[in-house]
Design a protein that fits this description.
Elements (H helix, E strand, L loop, with lengths): L1 H5 L4 H16 L3 E3 L2 H10 L7 H10 L26 E7 L4 E10 L2 E9 L8
Parallel strand pairs: 1-4
Antiparallel strand pairs: 2-3, 3-4
Helix pairs in contact: 2-4
């Protein structure tokens, strides 16, 4: 049983979460956990916060379970709005801006909560 917990999330779970996040993004059901930080990170990518929903849709469309870079099992959030929700982190290349991206999110009540979306910084822990 311990081995099963360590291997969470499974490929199937990740595929389902990516699909849920993509649907929520396409339907505009997006919340930014720290709006100012996400907006600044978007500007650092030469995009605006208004462009981010479309970019999230594009990013998630190209995200695969193998792009998962989070903990196993996933970390749980301590932020009030998403307390105890699993945080899922992915990295991938976003062709529109020509950069590798780090994206951390959770899904709660069919809403996509964006925790982080910025250029991938693989040398830094706890992105």
């Amino acid at each position: 049983m311990l081995k099963l917990i360590k291997n969470r999330p499974t490929h199937k779970e990740l595929a389902g979460k990516i699909r849920q996040a993509g649907i929520a993004a396409r339907e505009g059901r997006i919340e930014y956990l720290e709006y100012e930080i996400i907006a600044q990170d978007a500007l650092n990518l030469d995009i605006t916060i208004e462009e981010l929903p479309g970019i999230l849709v594009e990013f998630l469309k190209n995200t695969k379970p193998d792009h998962y870079c989070g903990n196993r099992p996933p970390q749980r959030s301590y932020e009030n709005r998403i307390r105890d929700c699993e945080l899922l982190a992915f990295t991938g290349y976003l062709f529109r801006i020509g950069k590798s991206i780090y994206f951390k999110f959770t899904i709660k009540n069919e809403m996509l909560y964006v925790v982080s979306f910025h250029e991938d910084r693989p040398d830094q822990e706890g992105q």
